[in-house]
Amino acid sequence: MSNVLYDEPGPKARRRAAIGTVVAAVILLGLTGLAVWRLADRGQFDSELWSPLINPSDDNFVLVWRLLAKGLQATLTAAVLAISLSLVIGTLLGVARMMLGRAGRIPVVAVIELFRGLPVIISIFYVYILVRSTGIDISFLPGSDGLWFLVIGLTLYNSVIIAEIVRAGVNSLPRGQSEAALAVGMTRWKSMKNVELPQAFRTMLPALISQLVVILKDTSLVAVLGLYTELLRRGNLISLNLDNPIQVLFVVGLIFIVINYALSKLAEYVERRLSTRGQSTGVRLNAGAAAA
Amino acid sequence: MDAVFNNMDLFWSGFLRSLGICLWGMVGSLILGTFIAACRVSPIPSLRWFGTSWVTLVRNCPLTVVLFFMAFGLPEIGINQSYYVFGVSALVIYTSAFVCEAIRSGINSVSAGQAEAARSIGLTFSQSLTQVVMPQAFRSIVPPLGSVIIAMFKNSAVVGAFGVGGDLWSVYKNLTSAQGYDGLPVITGVAVGYLCITLPAAAFLAYTERKVAIAR
Known about the structure:
- Chain A: This is Amino acid ABC transporter permease.
- Chain A: Its main location: membrane.
- Chain A: GO terms for molecular function: transmembrane transporter activity.
- Chain A: One of its GO terms (biological process) is amino acid transport.
- The complex is a heterodimer of chains A (292) and B (216).
- Chain A is built from twelve helices and no strands.
- In chain A, helix 2 (47-54) crosses helix 3 and helix 7 runs antiparallel to helix 8 (188-219).
- Chain A has helices spanning 11-41, 47-54, 61-99, 102-117, 120-134, 145-171, 175-183, 188-219, 222-225, 231-242, 245-276, 287-291.
- Chain B is mainly alpha-helical.
- Chain B has a single domain, classed as Orthogonal Bundle (MetI-like fold).
- Classes of the chains: A mainly alpha (292), B mainly alpha (216).
- Chains A and B meet through helix 1, helix 4, helix 5, helix 8 and helix 9 of A and helix 3, helix 4, helix 5, helix 6 and helix 7 of B.
């Protein structure tokens, strides 16, 4: 394999790589072995710790998995609500930022910069405190209050991210698109709505799916605040009852990893498909957007 | 807003402690992330495999799960540390995967012809790396790496909320539950405290990006 760092290996380099592979494998296996030995030494492989999770004939098995399924459902509910709301508000913000004049743009940019800089966990907690201390009644919304603290907090952050994705998507279109729309007599607004946005959404699709991964991960932030019982908090409560935090957190982590891995693969697939259809490749804000 | 202005000293010490979490997280994740990136681009297959699995696992797992696993799981196997150490370690592990990806994509953005040219004029591996590849890679690493670090600053609030003591969140708890202040002005002060970290960092990044920007 030749790349920027090293050439096609010759016989000597191949031999060195083979030795390196063996040495590295021994070290990695050794470290894994050490961890496994430590876990075994502390009785973490004991069947009573694992059996509620993996043994269908265990008394708690059905209950534990029913609770985990409820937690997962709560996580997915919050994530779907948050991405839908963010998509609507984010698109409006993004379009406002592009279409408003210089003066009108200032408050939009200020809002975007403010919520982009605020940690999501603070946004969620802020919504909770704001609702509680001003006595705003949000009980008319379906679902628990905790769900909406989470959804609103997530929406505040993610709608400004999506606003930036929308802007990047529209800006990535060739200028000729809007010029042609104006030339056939469309207004700027019509050109945006009927020509630019539909194309932008197509190129944005991979970035939007990646953002869903970020939102899914961020739903678990409420577990720290204890406002809403989603998957991680549900798992934590189960592990307090069964006294097996390592085992339950392992399963919870695995569920998150499988879902998010599948979603990121889907994003890659969509991106590849879009780019082979002769369109510009998907818009990605940057690696940091996915890090939040 | 008296709650904030009367307790400026408390907020200041909380701010410094929160800033400390950010800085330790930055140093740790840069070191670990560079190491993982080195694994991912190395010619040794087993190291590449390790780097790839690390990034796949850590990137798809929420920071809170990593944090809970360390804080509640590790004591079960006899590893006891303060929440501060656990919190910063979780932050470092989580961020390292993103740092690794930023560095790797930067290295991959240098075209192979550059290194081939360096080799063909007789530069050694380390010469071509330090004189030709890295100076170019660095320029495309800066923007994504900066975003990763800023995201990490924001994630440090999760560690704070988990309860490490002495930071902005504990100022909030202290002022609201022990001293009975209303929550809204105090949490506003905490939010402003975090903005004082993230907004200057973002401005600095934008400045640096313009400095190192190249047209390829």
